[in-house]
Amino acid sequence: MVRYYCDRCGNEVENLDALMEFSIDVTERPNRSLWHWRAEVCQECYEALKEEIANRLAPPPTTEENKKKGVRKVTP
Asked: Domain tally for the chain?
């Protein structure tokens, strides 16, 4: 019998369908190097990773000082 484990927490899961593939592709600039990370994780780890990444990528909370400064515009 084949056993399946979560790549993040190491817990055994019932079958391969209980694992979710979690992958990230990143292109760095200006050198345009590419790196890739992939793991098969259980549902609990998937939810935790998704929440952690969403929190890190979300913009910081706005403050009164930031509202007064306005949005910085990118010049071409």
From this structure: 1
